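Contributing new complexes? Match this layout with pyridoxal-5'-phosphate.
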Amino acid sequence: MARDYNFSPGPSAVPDAVMAQARDEFMEYRGEGASIMEISHRGGVFLEILDRAESLLRELLGVGDDYAVLFLSGGATGCAASLPLNLAGDREVVADYIVTGLWSRRAADEGTKYCDARVVADTKEQGYSVLPGDIDLSGDAAFVHYADNETVHGVEFDAPPSAGAPLAADMSSNILSRSFDLSAYGAIYAGAQKNLGIAGISLVVARKALLRPRPETPMIWNYAKQAADRSLVNTIPTFPVYIMSLVLEWVREQGGVEEMARRAERKSGMIYGCMESGFYRAHAAPECRSRMNVPFFLADDRLTASFLEGARERGLRGLAGHKALGGCRASLYNAMPEAGAQALADYMRDFEKRRG
Ligand SMILES: *Cc1c(COP(=O)(O)O)cnc(C)c1O
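Output block (do not edit by hand):
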């Protein structure tokens, strides 16, 4: 068996140790006589996994009792819709949206359906390669939404925008990659298939005091109801929760979020370091370059196909750019070992030497 270095943007690499443990427990979970995916989501065995996932998240992210930790279906896209349905008490409530790329654009479009969504900054004219200078805040917003890391455009906030209102952040692609002060946030959310595990579940952490679910909010997306029911309003995707619990244990064993942050700096530094000669060009401006997703172009686009083909031959997969941007993209989530980033950097330099 050969596992490539997997630079896929999502679903994406899962740590080898987690995959091996899941394999060992796949047919029969710890003496249960059945697989985790074959047993009740309300039974003691699964509830213990669910509790472990929640308590590990609370520990790793520093989440206090004033916040609910929810495991929901519908991905990060579902969260973008459920957010206004839970934090904006009715359709007239104002919510501000900062748009810095594809995902925050989509969240703003979704918000328009459910509240008085106002785009208070939009970097489209700069090709979503920078962070906004001026943010024209409404002043009376129930929340200010932004994407902490834009997975497609490779733009990451170094510090949260100052908002004067509770922040609501899409952290799908950089959660658990650095510590942050949760108290500035009304809610954060993330699909699991980047830094938390596999597709099928998403995480919402929401300040309980801000929850204003509307009558029409679907019950599976009613944060208050899900909080009261331990995210068990309906059948929770049990296997993705189990994988998440293993990933969280792995992060803790590796040294927690601070260690993930140090590794992310080193890994992304190796790739951005290849951009200096001009043969490769990063999409994002230097001051907001993502540590998780590195979209880049070859100065001579005619070489892109052969660059990607050569990468595949070396066991470096998932490097094609998003269709919205083209070019290449290296996603360097927590599960990407430093040796993988080094292998990519070596290949980039080697390709440049041969074809530059
Ligand atoms: C992947 C991603 C999404 C979409 O996630 P789904 O789970 O497919 O809905 C949204 N936002 C960001 C920042 C992402 O990286």
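Reviewers usually confirm one structural detail per submission. For this one: The first strand starts at residue 5 and ends at 6.
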